Amino acid sequence: MTTPLLEMTGVRKRYGGVQALDGAGLTAVRGEVHALLGPNGSGKSTLDKTLAGTVVPDAGTIRIDGAEARIGGPRDAHALGVAAVYQQLSVVGDLTVTQNVVLGLEPVRRLGFLDQRAARDRAGAALERFAAAFSGRLPLDRPAGALGPGERQIVEVAKALARGPRILVLDEATASLHKEQVEVLFDVVRQLRADGVLVVFTSHRLDEVFALCDRATVLRNGRTVGTVELAATDEDELVRLMVGDAPHQAPRPDVAATAAVATSGPAAGAPSATTLEVRGLTTDRLRDVSFTVRSGEVLGLGGLQGQGQSDLLLALFGGAHVGAGEALLDGQPLPLGSPAKASRAGVALVPGDRGRQGMFAVRPIQENLSLASMHRRATARFALRSAAERRAATSMVERLRIKIGSLADPVSTLSGGNQQKVVIGKWLLDRPRVVLLDDPTKGVDVAAKEEIYAIIRGLAADGAVVILNSSDNRELTELSDRVLVLFEGAVAEELSSEAISESRLVSSALRLAPGESL
Amino acid sequence: MSTPVLDPPRRGLGSWRPGPVALAGAVAVALVIAGEIVSPGFAGYGQLVNLMRVAAFLGVIAIGQTIVILAGGGGVDLSVGKVATFSAIIGSRVMDGDDANIVPAVALSLLVAASIGLVNGLGVTLLRIPPFVMTLGMIGVVQGLILAYTGGQAEGRAAPALTSLVNGRVIFDLPGLLFLWLLLGLLAVWLLRRTTFGWNLFAVGANRTAASLTGVRVNRTLILAYVLSATFAGLAGILLLGYTESVFLDLADQYMLPSVAAVVIGGTLLAGGIGGYAGTAVGAIVLTVLQGLLTTLDIGGAWRTVVNGVVLLVLLSLYGRQRRLRS
Amino acid sequence: SDDDGGNGGGGGEGGGDQPYTIGLSNGFVGSEWRTQMVEGLEAAFAEYEEEGVVDELVVESADTDVNGQIQQIRNLINRGVDAIIVNPNSETALDAVFREATGQGIEVFAIDQAVTSEDVTNVVIDQAEWARISAEWLAEQVGEGGNVVVVNGIAGHPANEMRWGAAEEVFNGAGVNVLTVADGNWDQATGQQVMTNLLATYPEVDGVWTQDGMAEGVFRAVDAAGRLDQITISGEARVGFMRLWGEARTNGFQSIGVVNPPGGAVSALHMAINVLEGEAFASGSLDGNTVTIPIPYTVDETTFDQYWGEASAESDAYSLDGSLTRDEAAEFFE
Amino acid sequence: MTGVLDRVRGVQLSGLATVAMLAVAVVVNSALQPNFWDSYALTSNFATFVPLVAIAVGQTIVVLSGGLDLSLGAQVTLASVVAVQIVDGSMDRYPLAVAAALGVGLACGALNGLVVALLRLQPIVATFATSFVYSGLALVVLPTPGGSVPFEVTTAYRDSVLGVPVALLLIVALALVWWVLRRHRVLRHVYAVGGDADAAYASLVPVARTRVWAYVLGGLFAALSALAILANTGSGDPFVGNELTLASVAAVVIGGTALTGGRGGAGGSVLGAIVLALVTNIIFFADVPTDYRQLVNGAVIILALALAGIPALQKRRPAA
Ligand SMILES: Nc1ncnc2c1ncn2[C@@H]1O[C@H](COP(=O)(O)OP(=O)(O)OP(=O)(O)O)[C@@H](O)[C@H]1O
Ligand SMILES: Nc1ncnc2c1ncn2[C@@H]1O[C@H](COP(=O)(O)OP(=O)(O)OP(=O)(O)O)[C@@H](O)[C@H]1O
Ligand SMILES: [Mg+2]
Ligand SMILES: [Mg+2]
């Protein structure tokens, strides 16, 4: 066997009290797409970052082409031919797409003056391969901040490619992409493989892993538990590797049954019948959306991502400017235009962008969980009682099985999946009547996903109105009672429960006539 | 961590690091000891009480500054000094040396201060003027108000009751001012750690978008923060009036930037969302002790200024540091 | 005239061109002293106005830096004034703009703080003399070998340096020990805090020499330490301080207040009118470009009752004042 | 897609808002001041603008990098007193004095960059601390006002070439320097670091070095401001520049640059500085009663700050 292109061994990294990596390793050869898998918080991103130079490990060796590599920063990694697409994007919103693609490696003339034409050419060349993923012309001169999340993700990939890497790290690079964009990306990755590049690929979507990757290394609790040939492995086995030998944990029944019951205050009791009726809702990005949902129902939102699903949820929560239309909750008009009022009317939103919209990274887990509902427990809605707050938060931590050290730790120290549970948990304490979920399992591992599914079902069972947007058609199929397929901000089709299937969702999203197949 | 949390963070013994409050406290003690060495008498009981008394004004002004800075988004209130001055000027004119007028005088001063804070808050939220320049502009406006109100001649005098409240010795020869400060400090800590307002404030400072999408009334919280800032500044002005007994046109102006420095030395991040008042209070003491120490050093004004800057830098590098890019 | 026609008004046309327009440039408003200065000038101006000698007083008064004051003066030039009375923010940094003014035939008078420019007539009291009077008094009180501390204004500020230079000489000559020199920013509250620190670390102090705005703060600090009977304070001629002084007199407290008159602006106005009328300074009244106006009077034990009687109705911030009469001003001219 | 439109409109608007304010200020000022367009008035006005314009350009660069420099005014003071001590009235030594001023700006900027980028102190308080160091040193260098600038320099500064004030040419030159810098890699990196330091770091931008550069450039512009002040005042003063600091921040914001960094440019700040200076003029020539002038001035400045923010207001309306 030839020397592996990349060999990482015994990598350790500690963050305060958290041992993120505890002797992790990864060995891969050139011309390979190597999956890096593991549950949330298992250390995948941290391992990727030690390779890309943004994290300096406490211990461990990295060999590239057999030679020991000292990677003290991104520049060292670059010199060794490593380029990375991070889970947290590194696109600068105020710079144009071109400027982002060449950032840090700008072509210059004499004395460091920029060569704008060369920059444009280079960016154009890098984005050319993804032309199919952009609807119109390549947005070379647009500020990156004006692009949609999927487009931004593509720019990020193009930026990494423009660096001509020997090793390309893709950390959940498909999380914000819709199906076609994923296909374009996969084609590019396959081309790179053919050119001898090593691609380290992390995703929680196992179908993608099987479709693209050759081998997979699995991390658990910061340790490498094994590397498998994917051709000789099935999904169950992979899952078993990821979650360990412990029997695949089914959600505890009490989670489903009582998830929506707040700790203090009257028990929810018999589910009251609630109806949400939306009439002619029109915003910048929505056109005349109307529908009705009843308590106990999960209404799915399907279609290509970016067709207005997130905007619909945001608008119902008062986070978008509403041009026309109204929403009635049990016949009472819902105040649109103020999230504060919406939340007091009993609406909850689990937003799509957890980091930006859902959590307070530097604040303790305690506060993150308490915030939405604390006024209910406070004396005169003002003075907090710490015991009550702690009890409420602890109950949620237990119920959702959030893996934490202490309630006082900043929520940023949790893994992505556990952060997501905190974001959901804060609303469960508020006993919402309408729950709006925007891609609630994005970046969440298999086990946590199942738990979140149970929570969603429990909410509906308790009589809440649930509206769920998901980029994962399987998830929609599994959870929804009905699905509204959106296209360009309007309802293109409504699928009743019998009609919901993954293939139907795909074809409907692409606006193919029913029956016509892909 | 000085973050107001309900239970203390668990730390391994090996990773123990003094929090900003402890560190700032240690610095204060070190400065006092250094002071005693270079000029004996500096650590005497009477002098320590005096230093604490002087620190109290900065400490009270910095309550509001802490609140505003915690609110994030570049939050800072540069108008605190001017507002304190204005409040003292109003208070002095209305009470005019008569105990009977204390209540209306204080009420009017605080009301005017709070309204200035309200305007700051409205400018920052509704007009979206960056706090730094909004409150900077407000300095000019308040100075204008002072001139228009006084015609350039401050009048009146502190009421004797106010003076004895501030300067009078209560127990252990401690002036009433210190007990007032303690009371206000506890109020501030309670407000930040144990009220919905406090937690909303931290949330707004940590992530404004997320706060709004969690149902927090962001603008209301911010406006209240600026109102509180100006009100505490106004209160400090009144206390300063009790201390000096008479006012003049730039009585408290010099507290503008030191109030920010006290907050930062106390470990609160200017980016918002992290910190608390306990640190600020110690920060105010540190700065005051430093000033006292520099005063007693006979090194000439120019070098004294240089030393002041250098020591400030050292203090800041002990704590107020930003996070690294590389972990 | 070298005037390029830009400025209106009567600049550059020589004397006797009534009525005159007078400009005032004041670069600092954070003090009552300055307010008194402006108000005094306005009152004196009104008298001339009634006589038809002058028609407009253009006041530029705002907190500003040297640049801002340059802009103030340029605005006055553009306004076409005949004379500018300026309380300068810098001894030297306005030189160039003063040349612009005189280049357009405008007469410029500096008050309170002398400037270096040859194009300007300084109408000021002798700051060194002002400091010397109180320093000599204090030196006498504490006696040879006595210990004093000093609470000064702002280090590097010309008036501060001039005053302290003179006072230091007095103390050296009298064998008085200066324990330390601290800065009180010409600010009562700072003065009070600084003095409190000094009292703790210099227990052996017998006297304090301080300058105008800070004396009241110093007094309160010494009073709070209960040491008014041991420590002599050089005070100021301001109502606030004099009230404290008067109250403490019954216990034998003594002090001194040398008047630093805001009315200097009025004296300068009289001079300006004379100059605009074409009068020339008498030989001997000019020292270089400086007319030194006498210090009006000094408040001390012997004169306290007299001056307190006149001033006690004023507010605390009121400075005892004095200015030349028109006749006295005329004596400086040929 | 509306996002893009909003954005493009926003960018143009923020420039437009400043230009509109300038236009209004000029119209109002010339209406109130009959001789506004006369040669002396023009020359003297521009002569007053240059120091603030220069320091505002420097502040812009620091702000774009995500920082703030509260010591720029003290740097102006220090650079000016060092230069005036060297030149001491002699034209022969003027080039040396210019070099020394720039050297001071460079050194101060480097120290600020060091404490902010390498020690990672928070810019507002760190530069507040260094401002003590610089203003203290200025007093050491020049304990009391004095020294003189060569007559040739002060005269040339007030002169005009073919009817165009030299000071105006200097302002144009400053804008030109900015225009050139914008085309340099360092400025691109400044924008990236101010926009998103983490992203820039991960994208191979030398973040710390870029921050140091931003403060150094700020210091160099402060030095230029010092030279302009010297030419304007003709002599040295150890307090001369200190109050320019806060005004420079106001000019930056009125010019449409975001204090959060990464967005804006010095072109706006140049106009913003001029607007600020004109406001003072307007209030003077409008004969606002003395006691109310400062009030009106403050209110007008807040109004200008609000107007400068309107484009951002429109841009931000759609949530998320
Ligand atoms: N900057 C940090 N500070 C503190 N703890 C951290 C930090 N980054 C990661 N961690 C912790 O390290 C562990 C590993 O995190 P990492 O992001 O590598 O997990 P991951 O496998 O990528 O998870 P996910 O699938 O959710 O992305 C987690 O427990 C996380 O909480
Ligand atoms: N998330 C919150 N943070 C802080 N204060 C809150 C929050 N939610 C509500 N409050 C406070 O509670 C007060 C009352 O709110 P409101 O009347 O809308 O609640 P409600 O809908 O009546 O509550 P409930 O749902 O329990 O009946 C508000 O003025 C607000 O200050
Ligand atoms: Mg990850
Ligand atoms: Mg409610």
Structural notes for this entry:
- The complex is a heterotetramer of chains A (518), B (327), C (334) and D (320).
- By secondary structure, chain A is an alpha/beta fold.
- Helix content of chain A is 33%, strand content 23%.
- Chain A is built from 19 helices and 20 strands.
- In chain A, strand 7 (167-171), helix 6 and strand 8 form a beta-alpha-beta unit.
- In chain A, helix 4 (116-128) packs across helix 5.
- The longest helix of chain A is centred in the middle third of the chain and has 16 residues, at 179-194.
- The longest helix of chain B has 27 residues, at 218-244.
- Chain B contains 13 helices and no strands.
- Chain B has helices at residues 20-38, 45-70, 80-95, 102-125, 131-150, 160-167, 176-193, 196-206, 208-212, 218-244, 256-265, 277-296, 301-318.
- Chain B has a single domain (42-318), classed as ABC transporter involved in vitamin B12 uptake, BtuC, CATH 1.10.3470.
- In chain C, the strands form 3 sheets. A 6-stranded parallel sheet of chain C has the order 2-1-3-4-5-11, with helices on both faces. Chain C has a 4-stranded parallel sheet with strand order 7-6-8-9, with helices on both faces. In chain C, strands 10-12 form a two-stranded antiparallel sheet.
- The longest helix of chain C is centred in the first third of the chain and has 19 residues, at 32-50.
- Chain C is elongated and about 60 Å long.
- Residues 1-15 of chain C have low confidence and may be disordered.
- Chain D has a single domain (11-311), classed as ABC transporter involved in vitamin B12 uptake, BtuC (Orthogonal Bundle), CATH 1.10.3470.
- Chain D is 76% helix and 3% strand.
- In chain D, strand 2 and strand 3 (164-165) form a beta hairpin.
- Chain D starts with a helix and ends with a helix.
- In chain D, 65% of the residues are buried.
- Classes of the chains: A alpha/beta (518), B mainly alpha (327), C alpha/beta (334), D mainly alpha (320).
- Chains in contact: A-B, A-D, B-C, B-D, C-D.
- One adenosine-5'-triphosphate sits between chains A (344, 372, 375-376, 381) and B (196, 200, 215-216).
- Chain B: It is found in: Cell membrane.
Secondary structure elements and their pairing?
The complex is a heterotetramer of chains A (518), B (327), C (334) and D (320).
Chain A: E1 6-15, E2 18-28, E3 33-37, H1 44-52, E4 59-64, E5 67-68, H2 74-79, E6 82-85, H3 97-101, H4 116-128, H5 149-162, E7 167-171, H6 179-194, E8 198-202, H7 206-212, E9 215-220, E10 223-229, H8 235-243, H9 253-258, E11 275-283, E12 289-294, E13 298-302, H10 309-316, E14 322-329, E15 332-333, H11 339-344, E16 347-350, H12 354-358, H13 365-370, H14 374-377, H15 386-399, H16 416-428, E17 434-438, H17 446-461, E18 465-469, H18 473-479, E19 482-487, E20 490-495, H19 502-509
Parallel strand pairs in A: 3-8, 3-9, 6-7, 7-8, 13-18, 13-19, 16-17, 17-18
Antiparallel strand pairs in A: 1-2, 1-4, 4-5, 9-10, 11-12, 11-14, 14-15, 19-20
Helix pairs in contact in A: 4-5
Chain B: H1 20-38, H2 45-70, H3 80-95, H4 102-125, H5 131-150, H6 160-167, H7 176-193, H8 196-206, H9 208-212, H10 218-244, H11 256-265, H12 277-296, H13 301-318
Helix pairs in contact in B: 1-12, 2-7, 2-10, 2-11, 2-12, 3-4, 3-5, 3-10, 4-5, 4-10, 6-7, 6-10, 7-8, 8-10, 11-12, 12-13
Chain C: E1 20-26, H1 32-50, E2 54-61, H2 66-78, E3 83-87, H3 95-103, E4 107-111, E5 120-124, H4 127-142, E6 147-152, H5 158-174, E7 177-183, H6 188-201, E8 207-210, H7 215-224, E9 232-233, H8 239-249, E10 257-258, H9 264-276, E11 290-292, E12 298-299, H10 304-311, H11 326-330
